[in-house]
Amino acid sequence: MSIYDTLNAEQQKAVFRTEGPVLILAGAGSGKTRVITHRIAYLIDELGVNPWNILAITFTNKAAGEMRERVDKLVGFGAESVWVSTFHSMCVRILRRHIDLLGYQNSFAIYDTDDQKSLMKEVMKSLNIDPKMLKERTILSAISNAKNELSSPLHYREEHQNDYTEKQIADAYDEYQRRLYKNNALDFDDLLMKTVELLTSHDEVRENYQNRFRYIMVDEYQDTNTAQFEIIRLLSGKYRNLCVVGDDDQSIYKFRGANINNILDFEKVFPDAMTVRLEQNYRSTQNVLDAANAVIKNNVNRKSKSLWTDHGAGEKIRFRQFDTAYEEARFIAEDIEDQVSRNSRLNYSDFAVLYRTNAQARVLEERFVLASIPYNIVGGTNFYARREIKDLLAYLKTIDNGVDDIAVERIINVPRRGIGQTTIARLQEYALQNGLSLFGAMERAGTIQSMGRTSVKIKPFVDLISSLKTYAQAAKPSDVLKRIIADTGYVEELKDSDEEDAEDRISNIDELISKVTDYEESVIEGVPTLSGFLEEVALVADIDQVEGGEKVLLMTLHSAKGLEFPYVYLAGLEDGVFPGEMTIQSGDEEEMAEERRLAYVGITRAKDVLTITCAKSRMLRGETRYNPVSRFVREIPAELMDSAPAKKSWHFDDDDTPFADYDGGADSYRGYGSSGSYGGSAKGASSYYGDGGRGRKGNEGYENTRGYGSVAYMDRQNNYDRSRGSYGGGSGPSAGSTGSGRRLKATYVKPHTAEEKKPFIARANDSHARTSSLGGSGRMGGLAKGADIVGAAPDYGPGDRVMHVKFGEGTVKAVEQAPRDYKVTVDFDEFGTKVMYAGFAKLEKL
DNA sequence: GTGCCTGCTCACGGG
DNA sequence: GAGCAGGCAC
Fold this sequence. Notes:
Blueprint: H1 9-16, E1 22-26, H2 32-46, E2 54-58, H3 61-74, E3 83-86, H4 87-98, E4 109-111, H5 113-126, H6 136-148, H7 153-159, H8 164-182, E5 185-187, H9 188-201, H10 203-212, E6 215-218, H11 226-235, E7 242-246, H12 261-264, H13 266-269, E8 274-278, H14 286-296, E9 318-324, H15 325-342, E10 351-355, H16 361-370, E11 375-377, H17 387-400, H18 405-411, H19 421-434, H20 438-443, H21 455-474, H22 477-488, H23 490-496, H24 502-522, H25 530-539, E12 552-556, E13 565-570, H26 581-586, H27 589-603, E14 606-620, E15 623-626, H28 631-634, H29 665-674, H30 700-703, H31 708-722, H32 740-747, H33 754-774, H34 782-789, E16 801-804, E17 808-817, E18 822-828, E19 832-837, H35 838-841, E20 844-845
Parallel strand pairs: 1-7, 1-8, 2-3, 2-6, 4-5, 6-7, 9-14, 10-12, 10-13, 11-12, 13-14
Antiparallel strand pairs: 14-15, 16-17, 16-20, 17-18, 18-19
Helix pairs in contact: 1-2, 2-3, 4-9, 5-6, 5-8, 7-8, 9-10, 9-11, 14-27, 15-16, 17-18, 17-21, 21-22, 22-24
The structure holds a DNA duplex.
């Protein structure tokens, strides 16, 4: 028996047809990764193809790694020579070798979104474009679209002569590109476009790669854009052994240029293509698939297919509607806890919570912390987007690529060197006049007339960078980083500062050092370089950063593409959230279709149990919104669900009574109550801050979350700290007018019936009782902060035992009055001595 | 040059 | 809610 016998007939067809163009339409969970890996194995083992001649393109680095691993298991040897990578990584690899042919230096930098914004600001300033008339985001997104469609500045200008705005964008595109070139930098879209340019304009390079890549496979083909299509068209131009795998129903990246016609028109572009349909699903239950099919069939213009499984019907889809997002989050957290404690075979990593927007993670995170459930938030605030990390990376970039002005500008006065805007402007002017980079101008600062005394301040920076550059020539990247930290005194300055989150920033820096070290260890061929590390950083996707472990994963629907979980919660299924307000308002059919595909992706992530939740009201950008149940939920036949949403949608009445014409609430609540796992306490306007995770205060759950999610929170806390005086404003615990939760409470909402009210009362009493001691540990709600921080002295003093949500138990060593709060020194049993502000630490006296 | 305050604007998804 | 630019005082 061979490894191919385990494949079904259609899968085998896709594996064995190795020559010529092949389109595999692979429904969700139909085993497409198996097909690709077996195809690679077949090429190597059965056809004797040199692994070196195979290219497989995946959507994320994580997927690339997993694919390589799986191929490795299937073939005897040689898997490591197969080129498995993402489009962007592959392009970087090609460009590092050949971009000098296009006039760039091979050590080019890769600009992320922030870098792009900084550069665009300068472009707009130099072109006198009024940021009020034309937003930098608008221009950047126009440029991005142009690049994804392979439209050069020149071409763009020719095509866009219609009005003043278009001409301005054309000017900006031109100047932006000029400056990227001057900084020896490429943005993300350039990586693709410059590769096309290279392969088109240099026959010898193109032929070289065409000869090498005799067999090309592309995963997630439905999300490729025009530039990516062109790259694979060029690369496969000689042998035409191109196999693309995708699902038009899962095309969800139009906003970043994905061209769904790449998959819809594949057979037109390659008339000799063989098409294989994989419709048998190996992942989910029939109920889940029926729901997914029912939703997606509302889209027109798709390659019709219908998923089926022999797994059986499975559990019905659970639907729960709540009054607020807080209760929704609480249900999800407690439900997961409940499932895990009832079934010993279940692990936290069997669960995922998916949502439309990253902002929804916040409330969920709060509940997970309170319930001590280990979790990981994918994305949101990217580790590499953190201030201290960006600062240090800018140092590395400056050392690595001396002409990157954006990097130099970032660090020129970090740590403070007394170099301000005026000086920088003078340097820039001098650089412009003399055709120098910013750093080049700084090197000559002594000779610049207008500089005067300030040139004294510039010299130490120039010396620092020069000596680091010399050092970097022979040192490991990690040593360079350590040297930067030492020479700039970056960490020392953080330690001395009274910044709230200095500690977290320092631990982030430690994390960065270990990431550099990891990188050095991961380099198999050649030597680890700064460019190599910076490149890895630039191309890392949110999902790539997720470590394993027994944790619930919280992420956007977009991030969840390609993943599967036994238990999936789809949260916030409300019109206005998902589909989003903008999609609904736009009235654009195709936009709605893309949202629907996203819903399809979400539903099909579930293997066994799918739970859909929504809230009648939620805070969106500071205001309470009342949203009806998502149309996507209403597209699921009632018989597939354990409780159905109201048939008639309800709305916010003119007389300010929410839910006035809501007629189906009882149905959904009955279902909810009968599930038994939550005891029907969905009601309860005032209960959402109280409950302290059922008395479990272990720090395990929290400690496991030291990922970006929790750190990101620290940022928000600080922002709060800076925001005009609601912190420590002295208005007293009960005032708390800034608290979002509190505001919600005030406008809220009568329970619908006496019957529904009962469990709420019982629960509410319970939670009120706890609020006094534990309510303050809510990490996020404005209410918790507003109410707790007020300048009353803490109820503990030196010698008292206290509990901290993150560090566990400890003994108070000192309490001292600081300007706006009390500074408390605590010796924690497990984490040692920490100094913290009482208002933020939320210590609980034991 | 720096730090703080205020008012304004914007709002999805991500390599 | 949150980030940012601009204004102001030191």
